[in-house]
Amino acid sequence: GDEFPSKLEHRVVAKAFYGVLLDIFAKYAEKSRVDPRDLGADAGLKIDEIVRERRVVYWTHNADVQNQMKGAIEDYLFELKDKRGFDLSFEDIDRILESCLEIARVRYPS
Fold this sequence. Notes:
Elements: H1 12-25, H2 29-32, H3 36-54, H4 63-84, H5 90-107
């Protein structure tokens, strides 16, 4: 409870995304002067929104829907990278995409 930013209160899946994002964003905090907790919370909420907007029945078995989710999350991460001025690596972007989709498959089953 206390370890999560208040904006994630009552957002269980966004908290799961936040855990992945915080770990990755913390690596960039010093160089880019971003607050990994705040950035991770905002990104966790946005990724949760992206997934929920694109979910359909049996989405976990639908590669097209999953690719749409990945594309939208990737676009968001590149936008975030530009706006916040930190150099998120392609490896970290791939890790975020894979981890967040895996969390979504478990937390938002078909």
